[in-house]
Amino acid sequence: MSGHDAPTSGLGPRRLRADGVRELVSETDVQASDLVAPVFVDATTDERQPIPSMPGHERVPVDEAVPRVREVLETGVEAVIVFGIPESKDPEGSRADAEDGVVQRATRAITAETEAYVITDLCLCEYTDHGHCGLLEDDAAEDPRLTVRNDATLERYRSIAVSQAEAGADMIAPSGMMDGQVAAIRDALDDAGHDDVPIMAYAAKYASAFYGPFRDAADGAPAFGDRRHYQMDPANAREARREVARDAAEGADVLMVKPALPYLDVVADVRREFDHPVAAYNVSGEYAMLHAAAEQGWLDLEAAAYESLLSIKRAGADLIITYFAEDLADQL
Ligand code: PBG
Q1: Residue nearest to atom 11 of ligand 1 (CA)
Q2: What's the rounded Cα separation, in Å, for the pair 178 and 136?
Q3: What CATH number does domain 28-329 carry, 3.20.20.70, 3.40.980.10, 3.40.50.12780, 3.40.50.12160?
Q4: What number does the ligand 1 atom closest to the CA of 287 have?
Q5: In this structure, which residue's CA is closest to atom 14 in ligand 1?
Q6: Alpha-carbon radius of gyration of the chain
Q7: Ligand 1: does its nearest atom lie under 6 Å from the Cβ of 157?
Q8: pLDDT per residue over 44-92, tens digit each?
Q9: Does the beta carbon of 125 lie inside 6 Å of ligand 1?
Q10: Looking at the whole model, is its pTM more than 0.70?
Q11: Residues annotated as part of the active site
Q12: Which residues contact 209 (CB under 8 A, 6 or more apart)?
């Protein structure tokens, strides 16, 4: 038999599915070193607060940031992305770039006391009293077409980026989806002498229903309207290529797609079209739904979580931000 004609009976592809050889021919794997664990630091609390919609995750006070990160490191995961819940909110999100802001304090402590690689999420939605990712237009509450001012918001992002880098952030991850945000932040970082700090762009970030639990966790739900005027339309994949190309041209070092599982076509496309490292964010809703099903006894949590992350890798992601990071690394 030439090997090109498919036989009509007898074993074929099953020959390589036997124990002993299956691992040798496997194309994809997930390692602890591929994973980034989200950490929530909360300036409004003195005690760890469980996040009900994200079982196993907590908001921790600033002085628990280091112990929290040590727990992550013990599992073998080496990178964290830090989100902050500030002590107070206002229309400009003025605590986002405060030298003694929640993320700045936590980052200073974590980088001083641990070996973790610290990525800081850069956005305003946790810091503004209206919950939007930037400064509002005057008529925003009346006219949903006018929500967030683009270039005025970029000025805020520049300042936040510099304050995070001064606090010791190893990488900055802007998630607000303003146009030009990568270029603005790159320029601000370079001007301030932080040309060694890379940018992981939330490049194709969709206006997704899967962020629900995160908005509880980080207290960042918009007080009115939604984020469809700045985040991407879930209907669009070709547009993602244009968005990502812009971020790449603006100097993004890592290109992220978010969410992950409902957008694996986009992950695969970005992998094919760009040479940059590709990140995928396996978001809070993707985590919460597996937990909810497992709680009912309808899914095996460990197996479903591993298969999810394996699929994200198979689609082409080099790194994955995931709430499963610690559990999975423990299991590996
Ligand atoms: C902030 C931000 C969000 C997430 C990460 N950064 C929320 C949003 O855009 O509404 C979501 C993460 C998740 O759901 O796990 N802009």
Answers
A1: 211
A2: 12
A3: 3.20.20.70
A4: 15
A5: 211
A6: 21
A7: no
A8: 999 999 999 999 999 999 999 999 999 999 999 999 999 999 999 999 9
A9: yes
A10: yes
A11: 205, 258
A12: 285
